[in-house]
Specification:
The chain is of the alpha/beta class. It has three domains: about 120 residues, 3-Layer(aba) Sandwich (Rossmann fold), CATH 3.40.50.10800; about 120 residues, 3-Layer(aba) Sandwich (Rossmann fold); about 80 residues, 3-Layer(aba) Sandwich (Rossmann fold). Helix 2 runs parallel beside helix 16, helix 4 runs parallel beside helix 5 and helix 8 crosses helix 17. The protein contains 17 helices and 13 strands. The chain is about 45% helix and about 15% strand. It binds 1,3-dihydroxyacetonephosphate and iron/sulfur cluster (SF4). 1,3-dihydroxyacetonephosphate binds next to loops.
Length: about 350
């Protein structure tokens, strides 16, 4: 019988720590723990591999471990399940660790949009659907069966370039900002990137707007990155004229336009790492990563972009108590919190993911 979570919830982080180490040691090579950069330190330190979404999804294809514990959010564990061997088991320590942006698009709404677009255009021939990896597996499967593809914040430009070789238009979901920021960096004018309001008929757009668009952007966003505002950058630049600004592309168009550098979590880390001693950075991404950079590089000045703490509350749900609970169950021979994507969905989603790996090698 599974060991209940109840007895773990009263443990503090220090009590969990030694038991996590012991359970990991007991499982040895049968286990791999993947940790996203936004995880809190008490979890991050137990990860065998850390990275951004792209790096961790590649890691999931390379691991030979029987159990893959994903310390991240739900869509990441789904990707690990889709890309791993059928006999490997993907686990998410807390099933409520979702992604609010991923939840802004669902299959019903995307299929409805596709039907509406098909009344105006030859959608299959003219539009390539792209889903950001921050999306449910059935949306990746939708892209797989409609000649589409997945992207991450690292490879979005290469993916969009590929998509334009397949058709003249792109339907991009769920993150409008990643789509717009990437399209603009590829010289697509803002007027040719229209916003699809999924609660309105034809996305709230006219037939002329849809026909003229190069990219149709889903009206989704990340509530964490949305909190960075142009005045935060302005204040920093006024105080530190020599300082540099770096942002994640889930931030708004204005933020990305006003930043010196824009890139994925992995890109942000590498850029700060490579900067000279004494460099000063204003960073627009999740707070756990920014705090970690400040600790790891005391020779640099690291500033957080917002005056308030912008934490990904769902990433934060992965805590030592839940990690320990999953681990001790595995040691006892029980699998709890397995993430299993239905085989047909997984097959079609894998198609879209493999297209992404092919274009971003
Ligand atoms: P990365 O791919 O840059 O890690 O981003 C994932 C994410 O969810 C950022 O909010
Ligand atoms: Fe989702 Fe935003 Fe959290 Fe990333 S930071 S996992 S996009 S809610």
């Amino acid at each position: 019988m599974d060991i209940s979570i109840k007895q773990f919830l009263s443990l503090n982080d220090v009590q969990c720590e030694e038991r996590i180490i012991a359970a990991k040691a007991a499982l040895g090579k049968r286990l791999v723990i993947l940790g996203h950069h936004y995880q809190r330190d008490e979890i991050f330190k137990h990860a065998d591999y850390t990275g951004d979404s792209l790096k961790l999804s590649r890691q999931a294809t390379q691991s030979s471990a029987e159990y893959i514990i994903f310390c991240g959010v739900h869509f990441m564990a789904e990707v690990a399940d889709i890309l791993s061997r059928p006999d490997q088991i993907a686990l998410l320590p807390d099933l409520s660790a979702g992604c609010s942006m991923a939840d802004m698009a669902n299959l019903e709404k995307v299929e409805h949009a596709w039907q509406e677009l098909s009344m105006i255009l030859d959608a299959e021939a003219q539009i390539t659907p792209i889903t950001y990896i921050n999306s449910a597996a059935d949306l990746k499967a939708f892209c797989g069966r409609h000649g589409g593809i997945v992207c991450t914040s690292t490879n979005a430009k290469q993916v969009l370039e590929w998509a334009f070789t397949q058709g003249e238009k792109i339907l991009f979901f769920p993150d409008q900002h990643l789509g717009r920021n990437t399209g603009y960096a590829m010289d697509i004018p803002l007027e040719q990137m229209v916003l699809w309001d999924f609660d309105k008929p034809n996305g709230g757009l006219s037939i002329e707007q849809i026909k003229a668009a190069k990219i149709i952007l889903w009206d989704g966003f990340c509530s964490v990155h949305q909190q960075f505002l142009p005045e935060h950058i302005e204040k920093f630049r006024n105080t530190y004229p020599l300082g540099k600004v770096i942002s994640h592309p889930e931030s708004s168009f204005e933020i990305c336009q006003n930043s010196d550098e824009v890139g994925s979590t992995e890109y942000i880390i590498k850029t700060v790492q490579a900067s000279p001693k004494g460099a000063r950075w204003l960073i627009g991404t999740e707070v756990n990563l920014v705090n970690r950079l400040a600790q790891e590089y005391p020779d640099k000045f690291i500033h957080y972009m917002a005056p308030i703490v912008c934490m990904c509350s769902t990433m934060y749900r992965i805590d030592p108590a839940h990690l320990l609970w999953v681990l001790e169950n595995l040691v006892a021979g029980n699998v709890v919190n397995q993430i299993k994507v239905l085989p047909q969905v997984a097959d079609e989603a894998r198609l879209a993911l493999e297209r992404m790996f092919d274009v971003s090698r």
